[in-house]
Specification:
The protein is an alpha/beta fold and 387 residues long. It contains 18 helices and 14 strands. Helix 8 links the parallel strand 6 and strand 7.
Length: 387
């Protein structure tokens, strides 16, 4: 029985990822902004809700199917966009997409990806594209044209990154030196790298991601990886950008990074087909509400006008159930699948998704719920503070 097969939960895959990756790379995946208060509260929020099951009900095969932004999924999950995925494992975004395809779910490709969207699209997965406007409108329109040509199903426009959050682990570890082109600056990582020979071999055969193939600067070529942070500060996404993107892109659009009813209504009024309740996994503004805590307000604000998705802190299939019961149509798994990628590449993502799926099936059966479409707040109760 292999090590991946022995993993029974996402925490097991996280431990395996920590052992496989150099500390600087693991901390990039695992860490968040400032005190990491929001990162920790994202997970803790799920413990604030208890299940209210209906027993005496026989359910042999619960219906987990759902339609998200016009795409039918076998269960209500998409893999979230993870920047620098190739640093986790050389399989990167393509391995994640292939695993998602086998699982019957969707996958969202990050703008900060080392894989061309055209190559990821060949995996057959319902592929969505996360959009940062890193190189201006002209480059953005070229990206949209490429996305349309290769069959991307919808866009996820991220609005919560006017500047990069202060991810203190990355700052202390010198993550910018690892991503840079100065090989002398990388010498500081030598002891840790020598302890992870499998990772370093993959890094020097392509995982270093010198540029972004899906962000092509007119007249210059793909945006260098080292320019991402600087460019991000001059690429703030506004509601006016939604207008021209809506004109250029006729497919579904989701607004990612919504935490209030006001922003949710503004997104729908601007033509969004979905909103994603998200605090960027705690990696941007520390001290905001946990995503699960913000979900009911957003769901109530938009009603049935658009799909409501959420991400942040999901580590078990039962967490998915709680999110659906509080108003989400589906969830995005970020670290939840990325730990699997780091632990074992494509097979690791397979294992992570299998764990979530088994948890989800078991939980809805134990709840006495025949279909995820039936989940609502009546299946939950708020934990008392004394409990």
């Amino acid at each position: 029985m292999g090590e991946l097969a022995r993993a029974v939960n996402i925490a097991d895959l996280r431990r395996m990822a920590r052992a496989r990756l150099p500390a600087v790379v693991f901390d990039y995946l695992d860490g968040a902004a400032e005190r990491e208060t929001t990162l920790n509260d994202n997970e803790a929020a799920f413990t604030r809700w208890l299940f209210r099951p209906r027993y005496g009900v026989e359910i042999s095969a619960p219906d987990l199917g759902v339609t998200v932004m016009g795409q039918k999924l076998a269960w209500p999950v998409l893999t979230a966009p993870i920047g620098y995925s190739a640093l986790m494992h050389r399989h990167g975004e393509r391995g994640t997409a292939r695993a998602a395809h086998r699982a019957g779910i969707g996958s969202i490709l990050s703008t900060i990806s080392g894989a061309r969207m055209e190559d990821v699209a060949t995996t057959g997965v319902p592929l969505f594209m996360q959009i940062y406007l890193l190189a201006g409108r002209e480059a953005g329109e070229a990206t949209l044209a490429r996305a349309k040509a290769c069959g991307v199903k919808g866009l996820f426009l991220t609005i919560d990154t006017p500047v990069a959050g202060l991810r203190e682990r990355d700052f202390r570890n010198g993550m910018n030196h690892l991503l840079g082109r100065n090989h002398f600056a990388k010498l500081r990582y030598l002891p840790d790298v020598l302890a992870h020979p499998g990772w370093v071999a993959a890094y020097f055969t392509g995982a270093s991601m010198p540029s972004l193939p899906n962000v092509v600067v007119p007249g210059e070529g793909p945006l260098p990886m080292t320019d991402v942070a600087k460019t991000l500060q001059h690429s703030v996404v506004t509601w006016d950008d939604l207008k021209w993107i809506r004109e250029s892109w006729k497919g579904p659009i989701a607004i990612k990074g919504v935490l209030t009813g006001e922003d949710a209504r503004r997104a729908v009024d601007g033509g969004a087909d979905a909103v994603v309740v998200s605090n960027h996994g705690g990696r941007q503004l520390d001290g905001v509400a946990a995503a699960l805590d913000a979900l009911p307000e957003v769901a109530a604000a938009v009603g049935t006008r658009c799909d409501v998705l959420m991400d942040g802190g999901l580590r078990r299939g039962g967490d998915i159930v709680k999110a659906l019961a509080l108003g989400a149509r589906a969830v995005l798994l970020g670290r939840g699948h990325a730990y699997g990628l780091a632990a074992g590449g494509e097979k690791g993502v397979d294992r992570a998704l299998a764990i979530f799926h088994a948890d989800l099936v078991r939980t809805v059966k134990l709840l006495g719920c025949a279909s995820v479409a039936q989940l609502d707040a009546s299946f939950l109760q708020r934990r008392r503070e004394t409990e």
